[in-house]
UniProtKB/TrEMBL annotation:
InterPro entries: HTH_MarR-typ (IPR000835), WH-like_DNA-bd_sf (IPR036388), WH_DNA-bd_sf (IPR036390). SUPFAM superfamilies: Winged helix' DNA-binding domain. Residues 45-146 form the HTH marR-type domain. This is Winged helix DNA-binding protein. Residues 168-190 are annotated as: Disordered. SMART domains: HTH_MARR. Keywords: DNA-binding. It comes from the Bacteria. It comes from Paraburkholderia panacisoli. It holds the Pfam family HTH_27. GO terms for molecular function: DNA binding; DNA-binding transcription factor activity.
């Protein structure tokens, strides 16, 4: 696309920057539609008196992954999150809703979590609804298996690149118009 047709992105000064920015914009829209799908489908399958948000839904499914207990650090790692206090808050919500159970780890002060009988029932129901209203639509896409596989590998690669860029940006000193403060001398003159 010619630069004159760009959306006016302040982030795009070249064709590659434009395509990267369009990808990021698509990713934002995808995240929002995915979270909306998770929430609306979750509302169908989870009792009306249980108030859990998108993050709790995702954490519940992560706990079900491979049907083995997971602690908060493992859940955070699997989700590429570093906000363990927020994850622990979500775990308390899921536990009080009766969707997960807390298990004390052997020879440790930490706890792991597993889906309760109700949590298993509701995530299985979620999967049935998901298959019926979402997965069937995927099957209309030609070569969908290959596309998902390539896209998942590409997203994993980009995750690493963005992580490294985030680490690099954490070491940048913000630029200001003011000169940096002069170091104070620790020597006393007398």
């Amino acid at each position: 696309m010619e630069p004159k047709f760009y959306r006016g992105w302040h982030l795009a000064k070249s064709d590659m920057e434009y395509k990267a920015t369009e990808f990021e914009w698509a990713l934002i829209r995808f995240y929002e539609s995915f979270s909306r799908f998770v929430l609306t489908t979750g509302m169908i399958t989870i009792a009306a008196d249980v108030d859990i948000k998108y993050q709790e839904h995702v954490i519940l499914h992560v706990i079900r992954m491979q049907d083995r207990p997971k602690n908060s650090a493992t859940i955070a790692r699997l989700m590429n999150r570093d906000d363990i206090p927020n994850i622990q808050y979500s775990l308390r919500k899921l536990e009080s809703a009766g969707l997960i159970e807390k298990l004390k780890d052997k020879n440790s002060k930490t706890y792991s979590y597993t889906a309760s009988e109700l949590g298993v029932k509701l995530t299985d129901e979620y999967n049935k609804v998901r298959q019926e209203i979402l997965v069937k639509r995927f099957e209309e896409i030609s070569d969908v298996d290959e596309k998902f596989e390539r896209c998942a590998r590409f997203m994993s690669l980009l995750t690493g690149i963005y992580e490294e860029a985030a680490r690099d940006s954490a070491t940048i000193t913000p630029q200001t118009d003011e000169p940096p403060p002069k170091p104070k001398s620790s020597r006393k003159t007398g």
